[in-house]
């Protein structure tokens, strides 16, 4: 059995949650069957939007024991790694494009006892991370341009996911995708090699009464794709 013969991880992104009641949203999504909670951190500099920082992560931590999958879309990222680690992130993913010293930053994340991840924007080739694979616990392939939720999936990223999967080989590295994930795209990214899916609109649409059904629909679509 290789590292990807396992159930697909669903990581709802709180970017699509109701920010007025984030604690309740986390509790509801965890009860609905989420595996991880994905936290999109944006700085208005690396991406054209601003979300939240370490104090919000720390405030949310008591509301869920699910792993916090923290994606830093910030530049520079290095000065903030310790703060997000202390705030309760279980995994910290940084953008390959947001640091001049990727190896050093990944080493620092692991030094804080956290899972180290790297994210690739759509135009960034997999070769950008070829020499840091042994520092990685997760690779996040962006299937939209980062900065806003609700964008359309970029089909060309399927080939990129497959290339990343070949590059990873038998290493125990999760391959995550973020952007436009829904029941129609989830089976395609899993078939290409992903095993962790970030879902924003697809997870949160319809309000809390729909969360369990939304996640179940994603899981059914993946299962049907595997059976086809």
Mean of all residue-level pLDDT scores = 95
Counted by DSSP, the helix tally is: 8
Please estimate the helix content. 25-40%
Number of strands: 8
Counting copies of identical and different chains, the oligomeric state is single chain
Shape field: globular
Q: Please provide the ordered H/E string of secondary-structure elements.
A: EHEHEHEHEEHEHEHH
Strand content: 15-25%
Rg over CA atoms, rounded to whole Å, is: 16 Å
Which regions are unreliable across 5 or more consecutive residues at pLDDT < 50?
1-5
Secondary-structure class: alpha/beta
Enumerate the strands of the largest sheet in spatial order, edge to edge or round the barrel: 1-8-7-6-5-4-3-2
Main sheet characteristics: 8 strands, parallel
Instruction: Report how far the terminal alpha carbons are from each other.
Output: 21 Å
Overview of this protein structure:
The chain is 32% helix and 18% strand. It is built from eight helices and eight strands; from the N terminus they run βαβαβαβαββαβαβαα. The chain has helices at 22-31, 54-60, 81-87, 102-111, 157-168, 186-192, 201-204, 211-227, and strands at 9-12, 37-42, 68-73, 91-95, 115-120, 138-142, 174-178, 196-199. The chain has an eight-stranded parallel sheet. Helix 2 packs parallel to helix 3 (81-87) and helix 6 packs across helix 8 (211-227). The radius of gyration is 16 Å and the shape is globular. The two termini are 21 Å apart. Mean pLDDT is 95; it is low at 1-5.
């Amino acid at each position: 059995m290789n590292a990807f013969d396992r159930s697909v991880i669903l990581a709802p992104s709180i970017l699509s949650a109701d920010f007025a009641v984030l604690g309740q949203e986390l509790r509801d999504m965890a009860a609905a069957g989420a595996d991880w909670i994905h936290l999109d951190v944006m700085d208005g500099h690396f991406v054209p939007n601003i979300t939240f920082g370490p104090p919000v992560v720390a405030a949310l931590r008591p509301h869920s024991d699910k792993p916090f999958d923290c994606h830093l879309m910030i530049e520079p990222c290095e000065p903030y790694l310790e703060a997000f680690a202390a705030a309760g992130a279980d995994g910290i993913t940084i953008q390959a494009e947001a640091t001049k010293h990727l190896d050093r930053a990944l080493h620092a994340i692991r030094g804080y006892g956290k899972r180290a991840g790297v994210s690739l924007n759509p135009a960034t080739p997999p070769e950008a991370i070829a020499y840091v694979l042994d520092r990685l616990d997760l690779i996040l392939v962006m299937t939209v341009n980062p900065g806003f939720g609700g964008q359309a999936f970029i089909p060309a990223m399927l080939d990129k996911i497959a290339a990343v999967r070949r590059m990873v080989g038998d290493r125990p590295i999760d391959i995550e995708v973020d952007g436009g994930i829904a029941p129609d795209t989830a089976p395609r990214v899993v078939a290409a090699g992903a095993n962790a899916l970030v879902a924003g609109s697809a997870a949160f649409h319809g309000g809390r009464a729909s969360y369990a059904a939304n996640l179940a629909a994603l899981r059914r679509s993946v299962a049907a794709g595997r059976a086809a």
